[in-house]
Amino acid sequence: MNTGKIQISYSTIRRFALIYISLPLLCFFIGWLKWYWIILSCIALFVCLVAAEDKNLLKKLFSKTKYNTDTKAPINEKTISLSKWVIPAIALISCAYCIFCGIGRLWGQSLDYTWRNAIFRDLIMRDWPVFYDKCQGALCYYIGMWLPAAIPGKIVYLIGGDYKVAFFVGNMSLLLYFTIGFTILFLLLLVYLQKTDAKHVFMLVFGLILFSGMDIIGSGLKINEGLHIEWWAGTFQYSSLTTCMCWVFNQTLVPWICTTLLLHEKTVSNLVFIGMACLFNGPFPFIGFFILCMAVGVTRCISMVKEKKGKTFIKEVISISNISAAFLIFPFISAFLLANNYMADNTGADTDSVFFLASIWGISDFVWYIFFLLIEFGIYAMLIALANKKNVLFYVTVVQLCIYPLFNLGINSDLTMRASIPPLFMMFIMVYKYLFDEKLIRPADSKSEKEKSKLFGNSSRLNVFYAVLVFCLIIGAVTPCVELARGSIQVKNRGIDDVRTDYIVTLNRTEDPFGREWNPDAFVAFDYDTNLFFKYFSRIGVK
User: Fold this and answer.
1) Residue 277: count of CB within 10 angstroms of its CB
2) Do the Cβ atoms of 404 and 419 come closer than 8 Å?
3) Which end of the chain, C or N, has fewer beta carbons within 10 A?
4) In this structure, what are the phi and psi dihedrals at residue 516, rounded to the nearest 5 degrees?
5) Residues 340 and 286: beta-carbon distance below 8 Å
């Protein structure tokens, strides 16, 4: 037995992942719902968690599968052996990465934090549910990732702490929460990829940080505070993974974890539950995740029917976890999100140009669209296509990413930028699986190549696809580097406490503090007194 190693099974890290993505839901249920809805929703959440665990326990009790006596897990379950330094190293890098993305307010933050800091402060300083007397509205947004972190700050504030101290404690809690989440995510990825040596661990961690489309090809490079080179294609934009963390972190991490869980799950018994956690962190990312889930479900259905196990598949679909999530969790989440003024009034949809290709595009627009697809993900997809020719999720991912730019829904192409979060992360996983499974230099595998090797003394050949892929990834890495450089330049020019990222302070106002345009529609429900959620589900109800 190697005392320098620790063994981690998928079931173990999955347990932590499910608890992690459930915490925002638990906080929301307790903080927002009436007492009887709290009981019902919390029981449903508990049932979902226990059902996911019980499935494994029943297999251990009744399956004939042999078990490894060291891990107490089935031999056919994916496990990894990690050096003891790996998890602390991943946690440390994750913490540093989150800091440089603006989490914790210890470094330069993007201008989207102007609203996000106000939301987080309101969650700490104000009662839950959050109502605003001045603007006559209620906070209604994708607040999931803030809720667990807001509680320590709220406790400090309630026991008499200064509001600045409470906000600092909240930010440190948010940093810790994201660090834990990234550690769980990386462990899930390592278990899936089955690579645990130092080289592959660091490749994966820094690969995630640096993964992006090759925006620099479509954009001139001039690093400054306001630089955001992903906008080179006009209304089209696919954000790099780091850009998502810097600008919409609350819609990013949980969908990534859910996407990785989807790759691991052998049945569809828990997909609705996982999907609800994704939905609460953003309806746009949920669209991308939902389509991936449907692909998994249809594929499994066809496979089970061919094996004459259709009844087994039906049992998976109507599992206690799926039923509980669909009927006792989904109604509360959907009602809350639909109460948002932006959603209720449908102000985000540009109904005159919903489908660009069929309405206003010319030849030049179509060429620009194709160029955008190639630069952002198309070249990556072509390079790994042969290795994924039997992978249904590969085709579904590519089709999704081809379709989203055709639609304009939301402010600043929100559908394209945010629904793409899960499929782009899926593309990242597939790219690095290819890099981990293939080799840059591989042995000659044909008679002609072997004969040449005898003549020239070389028994190996260059994997051209591999080399080109690495080259393209290096070009793509410019985008996240520019994003992180923006934060550094911002700190140099304006300091860490940049007033531009926290001047709103609270959404409980009727105008911008500096006289700018004031439009909080994306974050507030104004007509909550007639809204389903606040009228029937909300703990405080109509004020």
Assistant:
1) 29
2) yes
3) N
4) -80, 175
5) no
Which tens digit of pLDDT belongs to each residue from 524-535?
Answer: 998 888 889 999
Residue 528 corresponds to which amino acid?
Y
First to last CA, the chain: 63
Residue with tokens 């399956």: 63
Of 11, 14, 24, residue with least CA distance to 332: 24
**Residues 253 and 185 sit within 8 Å (Cβ to Cβ):** yes
Closest to 4 measured CA to CA, from 200, 224, 198: 198
Q: What is the pLDDT of residues 230-289, one digit of tens each?
A: 887 777 889 999 999 999 999 999 999 999 999 999 999 999 999 999 999 999 999 999
User: Two tokens at 461?
Assistant: 């050949």
pTM of the model: 0.91
CA dihedral 91, 92, 94, 99 (to 10 degrees): 140
CA trace torsion 524, 529, 531, 535 (10° rounding): 120
Share of the chain above pLDDT 90, in %: 66
Task: Tell me the C-alpha distance between 171 and 97, whole Å.
Answer: 15
Please give the full DSSP string across 221-248, using - where no structure is assigned.
----TT--GGGGBTTB----HHHHHHH-
Q: HSE of 343 in the Cβ direction (CA atoms, 13 Å)?
A: 18
Surface-to-core class of residue 486, CB atoms within 10 Å of its CB (0-12 exposed, 13-18 middle, 19+ buried): buried
What burial letters (b/e) apply to 164-197, b meaning 16+ CB within 10 Å?
eebbbbbbbbbbbbbbbbbbbbbbbbbbbbebbe
**For the chain, how many residues are written?**
543
Q: What share of the chain is helix, strand, coil (3-state, %, to 5)?
A: 65, 5, 30
Phi and psi of 538, rounded to 5°? Answer: -60, 140
- Backbone dihedral angles phi then psi of residue 227, each to the nearest 5 degrees: -70, 135
Token reading at 467:
């080399």
Q: Is 483 helix (H, G, I), strand (E, B) or coil?
A: helix
Question: What is the C-alpha separation between 260 and 188, in angstroms, rounded?
Answer: 7
Q: Give the C-alpha separation, 529 to 137, whole Å.
A: 9
Report residue 3's pLDDT band, with 50, 70 and 90 as the boundaries. low
Burial environment of residue 91 by CB neighbours within 10 A (0 to 12, 13 to 18, 19 or more) = middle
506: exposed, middle or buried (Cβ count in 10 Å: 0-12, 13-18, 19+): middle
The vertex-184 CA angle with 179 and 186, nearest 5°, equals 95
Quick check: helix, strand or coil at residue 205? helix
Gap between the Cα atoms of 53 and 35, Å rounded: 27
The alpha-helical segments, DSSP class H, found in 66-162 are 86-100, 113-125, 147-158
Residue partners of 322: CB distance under 8 A and separation at least 6: 268, 269, 270, 271, 272, 273, 316
Closest CA to 420 of 487, 388, 373: 373
Give Cα separations from 77 to 9, 13, 20, 51, 301 (angstroms). 7, 12, 22, 18, 22
Residue 145's identity, in one-letter code, is: M
Contact at 8 Å (CB) between 82 and 190? yes
